[in-house]
Amino acid sequence: MHYDIIGDIHGCYEELLQLLHKLGYYWEQERFVHPNNRKPVFVGDLTDRGPQSLSVIRLVYQLVINQQNAYYVPGNHCNKLYRYFLGNNVQINHGLETTVAEYENLTQKEQTDIKEMMITLYEQAPLYLQLSDVQAVVAHAGIQEKDIGKQNKKVKTFVLYGDITGETWADGRPIRRDWAQNYDGDQWIVYGHTPVRNPRFVRRTVNIDTGCVFGNALTAFRLPEETTVSVPSQQPFVKEKFS
Length: 243
What we know:
This protein has 6 helices and 14 strands. By secondary structure, it is an alpha/beta fold.
């Protein structure tokens, strides 16, 4: 199988459509298809901060759940939105407020539909995805080699948030260790979570969160080709978001 692993979308629906078309996908009888039977893989953080989070949910739900011709793993923003939809007491900040504002403008039926879509997407998703045919693992914020195949609270925290130290920067962002520098595995680890100006290759890892919602680009990593494809963002550029 051939895959197009797509980085953090964060509600940038128009850019997602542009990227899918650039990758060769097109609509045929209400299905998104590829002439070479490629599969999109979404690395999480579908929503928040960007202008059309609910449209992204609808499209990804259609591809992953209805058509069953794409894969999705959740990110930390997906986890928070899922908990919000369950009625948990979560803080509506760090981008969630944009998704909630969209949600509150819907009719009651539309709210019920989008809530059910997101809950289904999240509950049916693996924490991380092993693509053994191309020797790759897709995990939102990454995964350590020793944890591949494991499922526990510590692994979940790492996959969703990265290798956090427990400390924070002045602006409240968590301080994270650069785990990729110590990765020594043979499989590709394809991840996002931390915005970078260009796809960041370290050892056999690649960070494909090129900060679309912060005005840079939306990027896909293609396997087995090991190439990247990007489209420019339509959002304002926020320089300080890129380390």
